[in-house]
């Protein structure tokens, strides 16, 4: 069974919730050694994370708040949407000293867990500051990075749109320069989609699926991603609600390889006008980089796992 530690900024963009749901519903199970929260707001994101785990019957998973949005790491406050629209009941905040998150991350690494970071890299930076050299030996999977533009038919975003890296350049640079991670870049994850067509299956997938459907409907109204990108980008479905950046990172970390290509690259990292730039360089650090994904195939796989259909299909095939 895979040992996984998730470092997340759950509570804003709903793909963090979709990623945690994938881990919780993964066929054969996942040994979730811990969840740390980054970019928190006085424990509110951590409270939401505990709520999701409780909903899934996984209150045994250790959880800790890490870097807070008020601590000066970010150029602006990392806001949260209106709670009453996204959550079925009031959710109590769960603050704690950020050192707790550093200790939990260290403990997971010492246990041999893979670390999946799907938010800003601030907690990993704090871990490296407390334990110099620990990232060099850690098995890291980072949602982020930008090596080439997206393929035609998808949003033609530039390097500056890579939120996880650009919102905290200092932390991201330290992490990339001191680790040997697998990167799941923005230019690949833009080929994935959570769709309106998925909502019916999600509503039948227990309390966790119903929560995703509730948040997806609210997010669709707030962000209008389908109107902004589904109509304009022929590579994306017109009924899309959101990109599945973070679930794809989790699937890659768990070994899903049915629709991805990964290359070994040496990468140099440099800062230009306040933007962190990653580029192939023979003298750079070795990194594994996801270079292609079959988006529709991944979207179908994610829905089958989270809705419980994947287990049923696998059971039928083996019968």
Give the structure's gist in a few sentences.
This protein has a single domain, classed as Alpha-Beta Complex (Inosine-uridine Nucleoside N-ribohydrolase, Chain A). It is 39% helix and 19% strand.
List the helices and strands and how they pair.
Blueprint: E1 3-8, H1 15-24, E2 31-37, H2 44-55, E3 63-65, H3 83-86, H4 99-110, E4 114-117, H5 122-130, E5 140-143, H6 163-166, H7 169-178, E6 182-184, H8 186-189, E7 194-195, H9 199-203, H10 206-223, H11 225-230, E8 240-242, H12 245-253, E9 260-272, E10 275-280, E11 285-293, H13 295-307, H14 309-318
Parallel strand pairs: 1-2, 1-4, 2-3, 4-5, 5-6, 6-11
Antiparallel strand pairs: 7-8, 9-10, 9-11
Can you give keywords for this protein?
single chain; alpha/beta; nine-stranded mixed sheet; globular; two-stranded antiparallel sheet; Inosine-uridine Nucleoside N-ribohydrolase, Chain A; 14 helices; 319 residues
């Amino acid at each position: 069974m895979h040992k996984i530690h998730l470092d997340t900024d759950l509570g804003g963009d709903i793909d963090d919730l979709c990623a945690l749901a994938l881990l919780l519903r993964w066929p054969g199970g996942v040994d979730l050694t811990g969840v740390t929260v980054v970019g928190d707001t006085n424990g509110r994101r951590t409270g939401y994370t505990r709520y999701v785990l409780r909903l899934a019957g996984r209150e045994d998973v250790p959880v800790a708040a890490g870097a807070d949005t008020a601590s000066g790491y970010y150029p602006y406050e990392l806001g949260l949407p209106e709670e009453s629209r996204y959550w079925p009941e009031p959710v109590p905040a769960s603050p704690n000293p950020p050192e707790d998150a550093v200790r939990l991350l260290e403990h997971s690494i010492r246990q041999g867990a893979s670390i999946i970071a799907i938010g800003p890299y601030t907690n990993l930076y704090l871990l490296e500051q407390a334990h110099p050299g620990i990232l060099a030996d850690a098995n890291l999977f980072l949602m982020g990075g930008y090596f080439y533009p997206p393929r035609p038919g998808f949003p033609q975003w530039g390097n500056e749109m890579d939120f996880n890296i650009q919102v905290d350049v200092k932390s991201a640079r330290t992490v990339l320069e001191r680790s040997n991670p697998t990167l799941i870049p923005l230019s690949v994850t833009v080929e994935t989609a959570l769709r309106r067509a998925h909502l019916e299956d999600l509503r039948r997938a227990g309390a966790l699926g119903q929560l995703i459907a509730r948040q997806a409907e609210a997010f669709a109204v707030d962000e209008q991603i389908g109107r902004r990108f589904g109509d304009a980008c022929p590579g994306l479905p017109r009924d899309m609600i959101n990109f599945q950046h973070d679930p794809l990172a989790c699937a890659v970390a768990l070994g899903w390889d049915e629709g991805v290509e990964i290359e070994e690259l040496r990468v140099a990292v440099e800062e230009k006008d306040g933007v962190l730039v990653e580029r192939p360089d023979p003298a750079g650090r070795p990194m594994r980089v996801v270079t292609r994904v079959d988006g529709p195939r991944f979207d179908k796989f994610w829905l089958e796992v989270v809705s419980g259909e994947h287990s049923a299909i696998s059971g039928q095939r083996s019968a």
